[in-house]
Amino acid sequence: MVATVGDHRAEVTKVVCDTFRLDPALVEPDAPLEELGIDSKGRIKLLAALEIYYGVTIDLDRLDRFTDVGSVAGVLAEALGTRGSSGEALK
């Protein structure tokens, strides 16, 4: 079975909460990262945490897509080579 973006939202929420010491109950998938106190330096820290946690490489060019947990899950799905919500294969 192939994972989808939605499958990664809970995992990304956990990484966000662990990395920034946030209460998971306060992290909504569509809340802007800025509202969670995650600025541009924080997005780089999150990217590094995801790379370590999942053993993947994520291009810095993708960092501008780190706007909320859902979009981060989408970038992670691409990095893992899984399928997006549209069902097409992502690289």
Automatic annotation (TrEMBL):
Coiled coil: none annotated. Pfam families: PP-binding. PROSITE patterns: CARRIER. Residues 1-80 form the Carrier domain. InterPro entries: ACP-like_sf (IPR036736), PP-bd_ACP (IPR009081). This is Acyl carrier protein. It comes from Amycolatopsis mediterranei (strain S699) (Nocardia mediterranei).
